[in-house]
Amino acid sequence: MRTETPPLIRLEEYRPSDYLIDRVDLDIRLDPHATRIDATLALRPNPAGRAGAPLHLDGDDLRLVSVALDGAALAADAYTATPSGFGLHAPPGQPFSLRLVTEIDPTANTKLMGLYRSNGVYCTQCEADGFRRITYFLDRPDVMAVYTTRIEADRAEAPVLLGNGNLVESGSAGTDRHFAIWHDPHPKPAYLFALVGGRLGQVETRFTTMEGRAVTCAVYVEPGKEDRAGYALDAVIRSMRWDETAFGRPYDLDAFNVVAVSDFNMGAMENKGLNIFNDKYVLASPETATDGDYAAIEAIIAHEYFHNWSGNRVTCRDWFQLCLKEGLTVFRDQEFSSDMRSRPVHRIAEVRSLRARQFPEDAGPLRHPVRPRAYAEINNFYTATVYDKGAEIVRMLRTLIGADAFRAGMDRYFADNDGRAATVEDFLAAFAAVTGRDLSAFARWYERPGTPRLTATMAYDPAASRCTLRFTQSLPGEGGRDTPPLVIPVALGLVGAAGPLSGATCPDVRDGIFVLDRAEAEIVFDGVTEEPVPSLMRDFSAPVRLDLALTDAQRMRLLAQDSDPFNRWQAAQDVALRLILEPDPARAYAFAEALGRFLDSEALSDPAFAALVLALPSEGEAADALLSDVDPDAIHRARFALRAHLGQVLRPRLERLDAALAAADDAAYSPDAASAGRRSLRNAALDLIAAGDPETGASRAADRLARATNMTDRLAALGILALIPGQAREEALAGFAERFADEPLVLDKWFAIQAQIPEPGTLDRIARLKAHPAFTMTNPNRVRAVVGSFAFGNPTQFARADGAGFSLVADTVAALDSANPQVAARLLTAFGSWRRLEKSRAAKAGEMLNRIKAIPGLSRDSADIVARTLG
Ligand code: TRP
Ligand code: ZN
Q1: How far from the centroid of its chain's Cα atoms is residue 825's Cα?
Q2: What's the mean pLDDT in 678-699?
Q3: Quick check: is 287 catalytic?
């Protein structure tokens, strides 16, 4: 049997549901193997649907126990029930009630979609289409209902029972059992349904909203880990306050609960009033979490909380509109983190992640528009393009219309669409309404896949004190000349020898922005009294690849003199990237000297920024810049050589910085951005020192590891040691494993560091890691830590010339696919850039993809990725 290419669902075929569901009453009796779901659905024909159509309810792996229509049993020929659907042949023409009793086995649910158990805790994941694994339903986001959920369970097994909305009643249900009834007054799509039942500890606090509502906020975790839940709870409160001040959005229930579970397919989920999280994005203590973990927890707590308005109050009409909630909510969480931390440092982090994940996706076979037009499996479209490029589109919109109009447009969007399932058109209409602008050309960003290339050239006429900038935009791979242009906000300025030229003026530039809405344009600056260096795409004002031929010296002027921190960082990255792609000792030395001057003048005033300037572009970024004939070994060697060179030239400065920053070590650990920034610079300095002198590096890193009082320094030191083969490394790794033997989330870091070691021996090491007692294929975090880190974070070994790296990942996909297709399919996306590899590696990757394609019974998730990747 060969896996067929799965059929496509298309945006243009959208039509409203023939039936609507106004209310859902659920009575759920939790049981490890036989959970009973007694669901009563208040249905009615949709005036916008086809009159008299049969009713089809979605199902997935369900067993129907009984069914009744308006209180009466149904004749066997009046309906059809299979595990994957329920059909009512002749539904009443007026409102009616359908009672369906189903039975499911949550313990056997390895897909982690629907109702499942994680470490014995009952929990749910319904987005995108998991609710149909709980009961038969119109499982589509434009069917919104008011839910009342009675949850009953064994009191000892599940003392905590949580649902959506407000708790209305709880009590005992016989000797060993108890119940809780939750009512959510806000109509919602089924994907936002959730329940939790289990033995959990909690921390909680109160928050009073701007409307005066008293909200109890709680974070639930595995008992005994309550002391690691405080940071997440604090992030909840800060998120609530921020959404009020930044967007005027108050919370709308009496309770807001966050639950951490160990087995989770993604990061977290915004279920109404009951966010369920991968525990790695909740649990934090200085001993177990890094500064990066704290930042991620803060961002994801905020992200899920912000969905309450951008996603829940205003939801999506269909899954093609996924970016409507995800792109917008990422934008909102980015703004939150920027306000909580350093805005420029955060912006750089956002762009690094976009370039690492979204640019390659957009340049490969898995590319798709931010609003896809067709999909075979929606779970494969929770992508960097939908999330991160989606957020960039919202950001560009704000840049184009200005912050005040943007806020007014958001208010309008929420007001016009509250309680509705909306589209991208509804979103843009709100901004068109408040600005009076026609945004139809801007809307092309949602439709056009690929990263546009923006080419710029400058001409300077000293006699006329005039500077001319020419811009050309193009979208590679998207046919011919007549594709209409995108609207690209180009934030820009001119930088002279002593800083930005404030006297230069250009009629086409307003508030530092030129809007390029044609294929080509020329703009002229007057009053330019010296030959400037153009600083373009400041703050990364649009998700494009910028081609601007500057000399290293011009770039170093930007690093030293530009007023835009993003472009200062970018200038150093550009020089480094060129040096990785075309090594040149003389230029590398000049670059090191320029970095040295930068460090001398400002490293200590903004350590976090300085650490980013010192961090070279990743091997993946270098590969992405090449576009074809990629040899990961050559990139790796060139990048390591440049690191070593910088480490040697900068050594005295790095030592001084390290010493100056050492004082930070003595203070008690605090995860705040300033403290984290000092740690990051200190660790970046040690990393370069070690690159330049591995022997000294190994002993310093071992020393830092021994003295470390927090996970940030400990892991940084271990990461540095991991790159230096030898006894010290193996001892450090063994010591770490022993110390954290009972901490799965910490062992994930240990797994990940080893899986990324760029040495041939890593394959054997991974075999040993997979045999480690803490490793299990049933936990997605473990699989991602070992195999995901290898596939996405070890370019030389994943793309080994002998194909053994591809094999390792393919074997894992094959072993995981039927148990957890979502996680398997995501691993498979590591093959996304295979055609850009040099020929012999590409051939091996192709072989492997065909091997996976031939697996009998391959999941729709994996079959879809393989088909498109080979496409
Ligand atoms: N909506 C979730 C978010 O905030 C994404 C998500 C969580 C998800 N779990 C999922 C998507 C499972 C698909 C399947 O981004
Ligand atoms: Zn989201």
Answers
A1: 16
A2: 97
A3: no
